[in-house]
Each structure stands twice: as structure tokens, then as C-alpha cells.
Amino acid sequence: MDRLFFVGVSAALFAAFAFSLNFIVPFIIGDYSNFDFALIRHVVSALVGLYILFSQNGVMRHLTLRNCLQAIWLAFIGYVGYFLTVTGAAVFAGPVIAPAFLGLVPIVLMVIGNQRQGSLPWRSLMMPLALVMVGLALVNGAAFTTEGLNSVRSLWIGVPLALAAVGLWCWFALANQAALATRPEMPSGVWSALILVGGGVLVLAFYPVGAAMDLFQLPTLGFSWSSAGNLYFWGASFALLATVGGVWTWNIASRSLPVALAAQLIVSETAFGVIGGLIVHARWPTPIEVGGVVVLIAGVVLSVRIFYDRQFASAKAVLAHE
């Protein structure tokens, strides 16, 4: 029990870090667009997914039409759609404000998840939830200062995109856990690979349409390594770390932890995202930002402790009964 619990917690924290890397994408790809980056990233991820599928024994029994369509749908919601909305939010609202809005994710997931699963009495969740909300308020307050607003192009576009990213990620987290729950025989690696391949298929299918709409800069700026080497390097790196690593570890967390706890752990994405935004802008955090991140981490630590104690008490009761 202890091992499964701590593996799930570690996986959720790594997934949060991996997903937070989306916030810095617009600031490292030069003149290429987010769509160019998404193309490279998801094609590389799909190749990794195909390798995983063909290297597994007995994988064909899992490759049903239903499973493939479900994986493509989840890839559309949680990876392609989420990536485009969150990077768009970072472009228009800045790399500090965008992750601050994503802090709404754990609150929404925590409420919905605990309502569905009844993991803990609501009174037990009040203190960690309060810490998270205070931390988010501090981070948001820092983001909307004059310094935080310097990088904003359009709040009218950036904020709706950030809220859309919140909706997509909550939808994906709940739908993905429900899909895994109905497939207990499905290995996490195979399910992750199907989602990765689904994301690559969607991006490739969209490329002709996007190219006709001039959303891709690759045809104009060039596909050669001398022109697009930076795009290829970062796209492949993020594919392996953020997409492959994020998908795999989040699926492990989804199987190991209740939704309410996983939601609390994903709040660390906000902390990682704010830190990444500060690095991009080459500045030190303000005292308010430091306080916000510390309070967020305190809420996460308290949540882990409460859920662990609850799980330990339940297991002890079962053993005593036996």
C-alpha cells in the first residue's frame, strides 16, 4: 500500500512539472509558431508511442477500435487541445498570469473528484483547500502587478484561453481516470502509447488545413536543420519529457490515487509554471510570489499527509477485521 501510494504521489508531481513546461514554449522557439512546435512534438511522441506498442508482447488484444477511438479523443482533449490553449494563454496573457489561472484546476478537480468518489469527509479537505486558495490568491496578486502585466499582449484573449485550458484539463483528468477504471487489464504503458499515437495522428491530420491557413511557419522559414534546428531540438526534448513523461506518469497517478488527491498534487504545476515564467523573464520572485508558492506547497504536503493517514487507517481496520 505504502509503495503504491508514494509511487502515485511521485508520478503526479512529475506530471505536474512536465505539464508546466508548456508555459515556456512560446519563448524558446523563435519565429516558429506554436503549431510548428506542436507538430514536431506530437509526431516525435507518436513515434515513441508506436515503439512502445510494437515492443510489448500481446499488445494486439488491446488495439480494439473502441480503445483506439477513446485514446484519440482523450489526446484531443488533454494534450493537443490543452497544449494549444495553454501556450496561447502564455502568448497573450504572459508566462506568469497564465499558470496562475491554471491553479483553478486542482480546486475544480478536488471538488468534483471528492463529490464522485467520497474519498474524504469534506471537513478534512477544508484546511488544504484553504491553503491552496490562499496560495493561488497570492500568486495571482503578484501576477497582476505592473511588473507582471508588462508581458501581457491581450487579457481579453489570454484569460479565456487559460480558462479553456482549465476546462480541458479537468475534463481530461476525469475522463481518463474513468477510461482506465473500465480497463483494469490495460497496461498503463500501452494506454499511454495509444494516447501519444492519437495525438500525433490528430496533428498530422490538421497540418494540411493549418498550412492552408498560414498557421505553420515551417513551409516559409524552412524545414532544414540550419533553419529549424532549434525547433527540432526543443520539440523532441519536450516530446520525451513533457508529453511522453507527462502522459505516462499521469496515468500511473490516475490508477494509484483518488481524483481529489491527484488534483491537489497537480497544483504544483502552478508553482513550477510561475518559476519557469520568472526564469524566462530573468528576474527574482517578489516576496508575495515566494509566499504564494510556499503556501501552495504547504497545501499539497498537508493533502498528501491527510490522504495517507486516511488510507493507512482504512488498511489497518481491514487487517484487524481479518
From TrEMBL:
Lineage: superkingdom: Bacteria
Transmembrane spans: 39-59, 71-90, 96-113, 125-143, 155-176, 188-211, 231-253, 265-284, 290-308
Presence of the UniProt keyword Oxidoreductase in the record: no
InterPro entries in the cross-refs: EmrE-like
Transmembrane helix found in the keyword field: yes
Keywords: Membrane, Transmembrane, Transmembrane helix
Protein name: EamA-like transporter family protein
Origin species: Rhizobium azibense
Organism classification: Bacteria, Pseudomonadati, Pseudomonadota, Alphaproteobacteria, Hyphomicrobiales
